[in-house]
Amino acid sequence: MSSLLRGEEMCLAQLFLQSGSAYDCISELGELGLVEFRDLNPSVTAFQRKHVNEIKKCEEMERILGYLLREVKKADISLPERDVNPVAPLPKHVMAIMEQLQRLEVELGEVTRNKEKLQRNLLELTEYTHMLRITRKFVQRTAEVSVSLYMFSCLVKIEAFERMLWRVCKGYTILSYAEVEEYLENPDTGEPTKCVVFLISYWGDQIGQKVKKICDCYHCHVYPYPSSNEERNDVVEGLRTRIQDLHTVLNRTEDYLRQVLIKASESVYTWVIQVKKMKAIYYILNLCSFDVTNKCLIAEVWCPVNDIPTLRRALEEGSRKSGATVPSFVNRIPTSDTPPTLIKTNKFTSGFQNIVDAYGVGSYREVNPAPFTIITFPFLFAVMFGDLGHGVIMAVFAAWMVLCENNRKLKNTRNEIWNTFFEGRYIILMMGLFSIYTGLIYNDCFSKSLNIFGSGWSVKAMGWTKEQWENNRFLTLDPNVTGVFKGPYPLGIDPIWNLASNRLTFLNSYKMKMSVILGIIHMSFGVILSTYNYLHFRKKYNLYLVFLPELLFLLCLFGYLVFMILYKWLAFSAKDSRHAPSILIHFINMFLMQGDGLQPLYPGQTGLQIFLVVIAVLSVPVLLLGKPVYLYWLHNGSHRLGLYRGYERVRRNSEEELYLMRAHDMEEGSSHSDLSSSGENPTEELLHQAIHTIEYCLGCVSNTASYLRLWALSLAHAQLSEVLWAMVMRVGLRMDSTLGVLFLVPVFGLFAVLTVSILLVMEGLSAFLHALRLHWVEFQNKFYGGTGVKFCPFAFSLLPSSFEHDGLL
Amino acid sequence: APGFSSEKQLTFNVDHGYLEGLVRGMKAGILTSTDYHNLAQCDTLEDMKLHLQSTDYGKLLSSSEEDLTVSLVDSKLRANLVTEFSCLRSNALPPLSTFLDYITYSYMIDNVVMLITGALKQRDVAELLPRCHPLGAFDQMAAVGIARTPTELYSAILVDTPLAPFFQDAVSESNLDEMEAEILRNKLYKAYIESFHSFCKNIGGVTADIMCPVLEFEADRRTFIITVNSFGTELSGADKSALYPSCGKLYPEGLRLLAKAEDHEQVKAVANCYPEYKLIFDDPEPGADFKTLEDRFFEQEVKLNMLAFLQQFHFGVFYSYVKLKEQESRNIVWIAECVTQRQKSKIHNYIPIFPGTH
C-alpha cells in the first residue's frame, strides 16, 4: 500500500559487468524488466558506438524476417501459436540463425523470381492467343491495303495513342483495335486490367521505326503476325500446348514455394523474438561505458531499492550461464538527480493509475492520488449517472469483460475503441456498481421508482372525499395531518415522490446541497493530503504557513456552509417548515456582516459568523506572506547551514564520505537544496506564493461552484431517461388491443437501443469526462504536482515490434 | 485589394488547410544542422543509413537488399519526395492543384531536353527513362526522341501535354542538335516561369507576396546563368535576350545590359546595381571557403524559401517545401559522395537549411 501511495523508493546503481558475461546479464535483466539504463555516452553518435556492427547485423536479419513475413502473409499461411518466449540467442548461435535466414531468402527469392518469370511468360502467351483470335476479323477487312503488318496488345490509353500515331505518321497507318473481354492480370501490380488488341498497317520502313517507338512509349507488346491462315492455325495450336505446359510448371513452382513458406513460418516467430531481444541487448550495451582496464563494462541504472536483491540474483544467474570466473556485481551510488517515478500496479489499479498519469506523472515520492481515485472516481461518476437499471447493465457488461479477460480474441484485437473499453474494464465495473448504489439512493430505475419497503406516506389518512378527488387535478399531502407521514423510507428517496408534481423541486434542492457537501469534503481531503507531502519532504513550515491557512480558509467559509445545510436538515421538520430560513441569504449576510432583520438560526450565530469570517480573512495574508518571509529569515539568519555546506564542498574529494553525507541528506529529505534554491531568490518565492494564494482563494469559490456539475448532470440524466420512457415506451404500453403486444416488440427494441446508445454510452462518457475533470482540476490541484518522469524499465515484453506495427504479426 | 485577400485568407482553410498543415508537418522533418553535423562525421554509407534512421526518413534506406550506393541513395530520396508530392497533389483542390502542377512543369521541361539530347547521342530510351525526374513524368515521354525539329516535337508529341502553351516562341524548323536543345530548354523555361509568375499574381494575396519574389529570383538566376554560360559561344545579344525571362527584377534595364555583357566583370557590374545580387557576385571574404556561383544562388534560394514558412494561408509553402527538400537531397548526396570518395575536406560544402533550428 505504501508503494501505491508514494511510489517505489528508487536508487541509482552501478553495474560492473564482466565483458564475457555482459550479454547474458543484460539478457537476464531484460527478461525481468527491473531497471532503467542511463546513457553513459550521450556525446557519441549512434554509428560510432561499440556494438554498431552487431546492431546492423540484427537489422539485416529484421529485413529478411520482414520479407519472409510479407511472403508468408501473401501466401495466406497462418503463423503458428505465439506462446513461445525464447531467450535471446547466444552470440555464437547468431551466425547459425543468420545463415538460415540468408539461405531462406535466397531460396525464396529464386523461387519467386522463377514464378514471376513463368507468370509473365504465361501472360504473354495468353495475350498472343487472344490477339490471334480477335485479329482474325481485322485481317479480312484490311487484307487488301496492307503492305506490312504488325500486331500489338496491351492496355493503353487508346485515344491518345491513336492521336499520336496519326500525328507522327501523318495518316500513313491504319489502326484497328478491339477490347479483350477477359481481364488479364497486370504482372506489375497483380490487378486485373482490361486490355486492348490492335493491328497497325503501315507503308515504308521509316514509318515502321516511328510506329515501333510510339508503341514502346505506350508499353505495348509487339507480336509477329502470321502471314497465312495455315501458319496462324499452327501458331494457335503451338500456343495451346505451351500454355498447358506452363500451367503445370507454374503449379509445381507454387507448391514448392508454399512448402518453403510453411517451413519458414514454423520458426519465423521465434526468430522475430530472438532478433528483437538481441538488438535490444546490443542497444543497451551501447549505453554502457568501459572501465580503465577495459575488462568490464560499467552501466548505470535506476532501480527500485526493494528489487536490488533480485537484481543481484539476476546478475549471478547471468554470470553463471556464461561461465564467467569473475562475477558481475551491483554497487549503489549516491546521486543528486531526481529519480524516475515508479508506481507498481496490478490489473485492477492500473486503469486508475492511468487516469492520474494522463494528467501528469507524479513527482518522485509524492502522494499518489490513484488509491483514493479508486473509490472517489466511480463514486462521483455514479452521483451523475445515478440509475439502478443503467448501473446494472454497465456492471454486467464490465463483469463479462473481467471474466473473459484472458480470452485471446478480446485481448489482441486491433480495434482501438474496443481496447479503450477493455483496458478500463475494472473502472467500468466500479462505475457500474456505484451507479447501482446511487440509483438505489435516488430510487431511480429506468426513471421509475422501486417500492421495496412500502412508502412512508399514506393517502388514505388525508381523508379526501369523492368530490375532492374528482374536482381537483392536484391534491397536496400534508405531513402534519396524523397518519399521513409514517416516517422516512428506509433506503434513499421515498417512491411516492415519483408521482408528485413537485418532485423536481424537491430533488433539485436535495441534489444541489448534496453536490456542495461532497465537493467541500473532496476538496478538504485534497488539502489534507498535502500534509503528507510536506511531512515527507521535510518542509514542516509548510504545515503551519500553507496547509493551516488553506484549510482554515476553506472550512471557515465553505465548511460553515456545509454545517448550515446539515443544521437546517436536522433542525427543521415538517411542522415548522414554513419558518425554515434561506441558507443563501444567511450565507450572504455572513459576508456583509449584517442580518439584523433575520431570525437567527441558532443562538450566537452572528458572533460565530463574524469570528469565522475574520479567521478566513486573516488566513489570507498568512498564506500570502508566511512562507516567503520565513524562508527569507531562515536564509539570512542561519549561518550554520552555510558552514555545513562549505564543509561538504571542501571534502568533495573523498567519495565515500560524500556518499555518507548524501545519505544523511537524503534521510533529512531535500530540505537543504530547497532552502538554498528558494532562499536565494525571495522575490521569486513571493511571486510564486502570491500566484498560489490568488489561485487558491478564488479557486475555493469557483471549485465549489464547479461541483454543482454533479447536480446538473444527475438531473440531466434523470430527465433524459424519463423523456425516453414517456416518449417511447409509454406509447407502446398505451395500446390495449392484441395488436399492441406485437407493436410493443419494435417499441421496446427502439427503447433498448436508445437506452444503450444515448443513456449508457453518451451520458456515460459525459459523466466520465466530468468526473475526470473534478479529479484533475478540483481535487488534484490541492496537493498534486505531477511533474515527475515515468520509470521505463528495460524489459523485452515492453519492446514494440516493428512487424506488429506494420500489421505483419 | 486588401479586403479581397483577407476574405481569401478566411476561407483558405476550407479547401487547403489540411494540406498546408500536412506540408508544415513534413517541413518539421527537414534535417537540422545537428543532423548534418552527425552525417558529416560518417565514415561509410552504412553509417549514414544508421543516422538517417533516426530522422524522418526512417527505414527508407534500410528496406532494400542491394548494397548502398550514392545513386541508390539519390533515387530513394527522390522517390521519397515524389511520394510526398503525389500525396499532396492527389488531395489538392483547385487552384492549389494547378499550382502544384506548375511545380512539376519545370521537371517536365528538363526531362524533355534530357530525352532529346539522349536521342541525339543514340542512347536507348529504356536506358534514359529511369534517369528522368519522376515528378516530371508524363505519358508521351518515351516518344520524345522521335522528333527531329522543335515544330515536330510540338505538333506530334507534346501538343497534348501541359507543356504545349510554352511552345509559342519555341517552334522552329531548325534541326535539333545539342545547342538547339539547350536553347529550346531556355525558351520553354522562359515561357514557363513567366506563366507561373502571372498565375501566382492572379491568385493574389499572400501567395503572390511570397511566390513572386521567389519566381523573380528564379528568373534572374536563369538570366545570369545563361549569360555566364554563353561566353565563348556564337550566341548574339539578341539571341540571348530572347532567352531571358522577363518577369524578374532585372527586367528591363538589367536584361538589356546583360545581353551586351561579354565577360564576368561586366556581369558583376550589372549585378552591383541590384543589392540582392551584389552579394552573390561579391568576392569571397579572405579566409572564407570558396563557393561556386551556383552554390551562392542555391544559398540565396534556400533563404527565400525559408521565408515562405513565416506566413500562413498561401501556396508558397508547397513550392518552398519541394525546393528545400530537393536541396536537402542534394546535400545528402553531396555528403554521401564525399564519404565514398574519402574527400572529408570538402564535406562541409553543403548548403544548410534552417541553420538555427535543432
What can you see in these coordinates?
Chain B: This is V-type proton ATPase subunit. Chain B: It comes from Sparus aurata. Chain B: Belongs to the V-ATPase V0D/AC39 subunit family. The complex is a heterodimer of chains A (about 800) and B (about 350). Chain A has helices at about 1-5, 20-30, 50-75, 90-140, 160-170, 205-215, 230-285, 310-320, 350-360, 370-385, 390-405, 410, 415-425, 425-440, 465-470, 505-535, 540-570, 585-590, 605-635, 640-650, 655-665, 670-680, 680-705, 710-735, 740-780, 800-805, and strands spanning about 10-20, 35-40, 150-155, 175-185, 190-200, 220-225, 290, 295-305, 330-335. With about 800 residues, chain A is α+β, with helices and mostly antiparallel strands. Chain A folds into three domains: about 10-110 and about 255-330, no CATH class; about 120-230, Alpha-Beta Plaits, CATH 3.30.70; about 350-455 and about 490-635 and about 685-780, no CATH class. Chain B is built from 15 helices and no strands. Chain B has about 350 residues and is an all-alpha fold. At the A-B interface, helix 3, helix 5 and helix 6 of A face helix 3 and helix 7 of B.
List the helices and strands and how they pair.
The complex is a heterodimer of chains A (809) and B (358).
Chain A: H1 2-6, E1 10-18, H2 22-32, E2 36-38, H3 52-74, H4 91-142, E3 148-154, H5 158-169, E4 173-185, E5 192-202, H6 205-217, E6 221-223, H7 229-287, E7 289-290, E8 296-304, H8 308-322, E9 329-333, H9 349-359, H10 370-384, H11 388-403, H12 408-411, H13 416-423, H14 425-442, H15 466-471, H16 503-536, H17 540-571, H18 583-592, H19 605-637, H20 639-650, H21 655-667, H22 671-679, H23 682-706, H24 709-734, H25 738-779, H26 802-805
Antiparallel strand pairs in A: 1-8, 1-9, 2-8, 3-5, 3-6, 4-5, 7-8
Chain B: H1 2-27, H2 33-40, H3 45-53, H4 70-91, H5 96-120, H6 125-128, H7 150-157, H8 178-203, H9 205-230, H10 237-243, H11 253-260, H12 264-271, H13 275-281, H14 293-307, H15 316-340
Helix pairs in contact in B: 1-15, 4-5, 4-15, 5-8, 8-9, 9-14, 10-11, 14-15
